[in-house]
Amino acid sequence: MDTVLLKTDHLTHAFGSEQSGIFDICLTIARDDFIVLAGKNGCGKTTLIRHFNGLLMPDRGRVLLDGQDIQKNLTVARKKVGMVFQDPDTQIIADTVFDETAFGPENLNMGREAINAGVINALKLLGLYHLRDRNPATLSGGEKRRLAIAGILVMAPDLIIFDEPFANLDYPSIVSLVRVCRTLHRSGHAIVMTTHDVAPVIMLATKMVVMDKGRIKEQGDPISLAPCLESYGVKNPFTPMAQAWAL
Amino acid sequence: MTLFSYHPGDTLWHTLDVRCKCLLMCLLSLAVLKTGLPGNIICLCVLMGILKMLGVGPVKLVTQLKCFLLLLTLIFFCRWAVTPGHPMVTLHGFSLTRQGFASAGLVSLRFLVVMLLGLILTVTTRSMEIKAAVQWFFKPVPFIPEKRVAVMVGLALKFMPLILDNAREVTHAVNARCGNLRKNPVRRLVNLAWPLLKKTFQSADDLSLAMQARCYSENRTDARFFSNGKEGWVVGLTFIFCAGIVLMG
Amino acid sequence: MNGTPMDVSIKPIIYSALFIALISIGAMIAVPVGPVPIVLQNMFVLLAGLILPPAWAAGCVAVYLLMGFAGLPVFAGGTSGIGKVFGPTGGYLLSYLPAAFLTAVISGRAAKSLVRDCGAAIAGMAVMYMFGVPWLKWVLAVSWGKALAAGMYPFVPGAVLKIIAAVIIARKLRPLIRF
């Protein structure tokens, strides 16, 4: 099997101005990649990842998934590329944890038995099975985030995209989320994670991509790239905060 | 969480098929509207008994339904005061009649019973199940896109707590800057509603993206209904009960 | 992040659901103005009419009423059921349907002028009281004078405020909304 999962080809989406948008992005994601997409707010990270499952269409260039242009079959693209959004509250749809997880497969019109099996599996994997009858609104921030992951994991995606997963999470939730990411990566999912705080995942990532002003500025080994992060407005995870303030 | 939310449990009322529960509710509502005072009192006692079994005692009912009971009292006195007949009490040349008392009592009792019926349904049934039942009932009706309606209902239920939270936040944020001192009522209304709506519509946009990312389509897997096999008995007994109170009234 | 042509089918559904939710909880959001606190429920009905196309505006109110009939706790104070509709305030509830539709029809599709929006909101509010007051009279079995005194006069200042606020908000909100 080909190791290249997703490839973008000179991707440009301008939003009608030179200030925002993304320009000329060429990026390759392999099946075993864990990519950290770093950059400050407004650098185009979110715009870029929303092209990966066809939520946004490029002005120029293409996105290839398994060698196929994703515009050919959007449903397949959205099934294979799962996306966990920044704010879990806005993406939770149903009123129990179980139904919420079943939403995706129900959209694909899968059989009820297959759905139930898949949902139970995904909930157990993320440690949410005991909460299956709870209303998602009553869950904690970390649990909501894991529920959002369960909701896309049940569709058996090849690539999982996280958009700022650590925003608004307390320390224990961050730790448990990083563990989940590691488990998912080890079980054969490619992962792309946008963040402006690379510290929690820098040891797990296989590749770091740094964006600024809508363009890819650096890409390569995360640890060797860490020192140059600060020139693009991202904190170097190896400088303590106290030292940053002293400067 | 208010009284009108789902209380988990596994009683007969919880496990009954939802469609059956909806039917029973309609049947009982009609019977209550047809029957007289004794039938309503019996019905009220039965419903209170069921609610007690479900863990909603009379004390909890009264405290949680204060506003509703107040409205009922208002209706009661209104009707009592305007119905002509034999005077029962006379105050300052204004008489309250015996007939008025009976008809006012009947009307307010009916409201109370129908309300309690609705309460039993909401306490024992998840809103998703009610939604699925509504969808099922609308399947044979032409010109109604029942799946779209079901999605709208589900989303609306999801938005409600979100909007309430947002409303609280916005109120606090406005008052923290002394917005409550504004004299112009239109400005106050707009100051509250505009940020609330702006925020809510933005989260609606996010939601539409999230739903597309999860392949939303109207051709979805149908909901499944669970039944405990006692529907026949319960429907039969309810029929007899309804017939009984209607004949009695 | 908008702008894909894909949004077309799902956006009106989500916006309608949003208005259903707003109308449902509108009774719980009160703004303390004067002696009678203003409740936002009927303002949201007017807003639905001003913002959604007629079919969707009527559809969203219809689904709201349907949810209430079916026993979901969406009527004022978290109540529901057919009994509520036959209660004294049922006329107002039912009037939301023609009110939202009429408002949407009058406010029109393209080129929304201020005068037209105001006319639409006033017509919508008038429809609510045209249904609500006779219903109140019938249920409470009181005279017209008493029904008007209980069901309309105390609310007229609030209604005027809400019409103005609804028009202002609708005009601010429209640029944010893309179907």
TrEMBL record, chain A:
Q: Please provide, alphabetically and separated by semicolons, the GO molecular function terms listed in this UniProt record.
A: ATP binding; ATP hydrolysis activity; ATPase-coupled transmembrane transporter activity
Which branch of life, at top level? Bacteria
Q: Where is the signal peptide?
A: none
Subcellular location(s): the record lists: Cell membrane
Q: Which InterPro entries match?
A: AAA+_ATPase, ABC_transporter-like_ATP-bd, ABC_transporter-like_CS, ABC_transpr_CbiO/EcfA_su, ECF_ABC_transporter_ATP-bd, P-loop_NTPase
Annotated keywords? ATP-binding, Cell membrane, Membrane, Nucleotide-binding, Translocase, Transport
User: Locate the ABC transporter domain: which residues?
Assistant: 6-238
For this UniProt entry, what's an example GO CC term? ATP-binding cassette (ABC) transporter complex
Give yes or no: UniProt keyword Nucleotide-binding. Answer: yes
* Keyword Zinc-finger attributed: no
Q: Which PROSITE patterns match?
A: ABC_TRANSPORTER_1, ABC_TRANSPORTER_2
Q: Which family does it belong to?
A: Belongs to the ABC transporter superfamily.
Identify this protein by name: ABC transporter ATP-binding protein
Q: Whose protein is this, by species?
A: Desulfobacter latus
Source taxonomy: Bacteria, Pseudomonadati, Thermodesulfobacteriota, Desulfobacteria, Desulfobacterales
Automatic annotation (TrEMBL), chain B:
Which keywords are on file for this protein? Cell membrane, Membrane, Transmembrane, Transmembrane helix
Would you name any one GO CC term? plasma membrane
Q: Which Pfam families match?
A: CbiQ
| Main subcellular location | membrane
Protein location: Membrane
Per UniProt, what is the membrane topology?
Answer: Multi-pass membrane protein
Q: Which residues form the signal peptide?
A: none
Q: Is NAD there in the keyword field?
A: no
- Transmembrane region(s): 37-54, 61-82, 102-123, 232-248
The record, for InterPro entries, names:
ABC/ECF_trnsptr_transmembrane, ECF_transporter_component
Q: Is Membrane one of the keywords UniProt gives this record?
A: yes
- What PANTHER family does this protein's entry cite? SLL0384 PROTEIN (PTHR34857:SF2)
What is this protein called in UniProt? Energy-coupling factor transporter transmembrane protein EcfT
Query: Which species does this protein come from?
Result: Desulfobacter latus
